[in-house]
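FAQ
Q: What does a multi-component entry look like?
A: The components come first, one per line:
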Amino acid sequence: MSVLIIAESENNALKRNVAEVASYGAALASKLNANCTAITFHASNAAELGQYGVTKVAHISNVPTHFDAHAQANAISAYATQNKNTHIIIGSSADAKFLAPLLAAKLSAGYAPNVVALPDELSPLTVKRTVFTNKAFAHTQLLEDFNIIGVGNNSFGVIDNEVNCTVDEIEATNTASNLEQFSIEKVTGKATIADADVVVSGGRGLKGPENWHLIEALAEILDAATACSKPVSDMGWRSHDEHVGQTGKPVSTNLYIAVGISGAIQHLAGVNSSKVKVVINNDPEAPFFKAADYGVVGDAFEVVPELIQKLKAFKALS
Amino acid sequence: MNILVCISHVPDTTSKIHFIEDNTAFESRDVQYVINPNDEFGLTRAIWFKEKQGAQVHVIHVGTPKSDPTLRKCLAIGADKAFRINTPALDGTSVAQELAAFVRNNPYDLIIAGRESIDYNGAMVPGMLAALLDIPFVPNCVGLEIDETTAIAEREIDGGREKLKGSLPLVIGGQKGLVEESDLRIPNMRGIMQARQKPFEVIPPLEAAPATEDMKFEKPAKKAEVKLVPADDLDQLIELLHKEANVL
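Then the predicted structure of the entire assembly, as tokens:
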């Protein structure tokens, strides 16, 4: 019995979300009195996982340098089988959710995604996860010899626990791809909905795409990603990539600021697992106020510019 | 080209979620069931391939006769044939195994499922199915072009998009973007009448074992009342976010 953490990487470095995934894995290993190893691909700073309680990293370089789910699933499956890594911990990024089901099928493993806490019970292994798009939780038993826990973003947090960490170079055997990367476009230097600590989201109350500079300026000062409601993306004011909600992207961030969004049940479901929600809306009856932590009843065109000024002053002081 | 679209039957997006039997089962009474929205985007793209490139479109579902109206709706909006594997959907693993057994006997060029179902949000069936069949898989698929036996599928990644090229057969997990909301079809009377004549087969299951089991459900704790801050005192909001909520 031992724990294996899948540490994602890109551009030859660990991704930011490894801190939370590794913290979870190390905490679970300590409960199980088991070893805690991480596996990663093309990450020159792999030893930094020691900061979160990982004592050993298996580092693999003989797979494609870009993320290749098929090749990585084969390599991880071989490693976990050989080392009897019964508890496998993975994150919730788009790549993690691509990789995990492939790995589960190859290992005949149980897989529970969207897990929000350390297991309720270690035997039989039982985890708490979100279901019905954040409208409820399920306590799910994982019944196989190998089991994969997918940790929800911002659900467990980061625990600093510095230990000595050794990195072993491992050679994968079955590294063929079954898909070719044709092209990739990725924004750089800007926070994305998936990994931002703060998301600023706009709805129909902004009256038109020409007013989005307000959302962008507020997002900029908070280092936040921008998002929008479903009607806004349906009307083409903003691209689909920004639509958050039940049929769009889920958001589980530390701070979610909704401007001019009334709060349809599908939107609320998509943002429910965000920690703190602030709503700015001129309609005091907007359903979003019932789901929010803090609210401002007021005209977005007055409140947002003033909030930007005040945040600038606050940032200058702190 | 033969396309198989995997259909999940889910509570519609406006449903209130309740549990019964000491919180061990979902209360399905008074719940309106629909085609899983992510699957419907995929089905609509499949019908586009039927109309533009002469594809045959079959739909398949793992479930009980309660889901038959959902499958009839798929036929009414353009699918040619429906299959239902006659067993309750226990978890993602068992559903993927049931589907894989069917596809091994009935090969398809393209298998479309939804990115995830909006009830259990597992996002695992299409990937598991592809791995069990040992064929390529593209999740979060927002664009798909097929030329003879080559596919270019575009997937949403965190902060961007990636195009992947591969040969058929292929499994995709579809979502909005594959077609637009405005492309979705509403069944018309002619479609509904035709659906009655279309083949609908009920298939005996493998009875694959699940790898997970939901023991108990719970609803989120009731939220504390919102704290309203006057629009002319935004310093107070910043103070609360900084000191009380600890997010600034």
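Q: Is there any commentary attached?
A: Sometimes. For this entry: The longest strand of chain A covers residues 125-131.
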